[in-house]
Amino acid sequence: MSMRGLPKMSQAVLRMNSCAGIPEIDDLIEEAAKDAEPTVLEQLRAGTICELPADRRAEKELQRDCENWLRLRGYYPRTPAHIIAGMDGQQGYYIHLNRTKKNPILLDLLILRADGMWLEVELKVEAGRLTPVQNALIESSKHRVVCRSLEQMKASVELFELAGEKRKLSQTQSEVA
Predict the structure, then answer these.
(1) Residue 124 falls within a domain, yes or no?
(2) Count of domains observed in the chain
(3) What is the structure's pLDDT at 15?
């Protein structure tokens, strides 16, 4: 797809912003594309000029959906802004690493429950393959799972929470006895 007519820096910024889904992109598109061909402006507005492969876009969408569901469930992102603001997740926190290829020892999401338990999740679309390191990590612990859909993520987190409730119940019973 051609972005002819736009300066190279504008092209790079528009690609990055449109792929990241930054809300202010419409203003940038209007400004940068004033002199562009009409088809380029239409492509920018439609978001079809993004150069990420379809499976990477699908994985990013799965990541976004899972993080939104976690927030609805009571888990907050563990970021400096949330920590400084004193925003405690009712259930706990989750950590999303943006550049896991540069840090292959952690999976996509690390979910930390308020009671100290953790679950590590690798998100893959159906066509996605695990790297040898990811595979070894997942096989090394029952606290690491692969989820290929939002439904699998929900089921994994619900089982994770249920295991925590059972653990609390057994601790309470042993304290009473």
Answers:
(1) yes
(2) 2
(3) 55
pLDDT in tens, 9-40: 455 554 554 554 443 445 544 555 555 555 55
Long-range contacts at 136-140 (CB < 8 A, ≥ 24 apart): 137/105, 137/107, 138/107
Q: Are 73 and 36 in the same domain?
A: no
> H helices of 74-149, where?
80-84, 132-139
The burial class, CB within 10 Å (0-12 / 13-18 / 19+), for 39 is exposed
Q: Per-residue pLDDT tens for 96-133?
A: 876 656 667 789 999 999 888 999 999 998 888 888 88
Unique residue bearing structure tokens 């992102």: 77
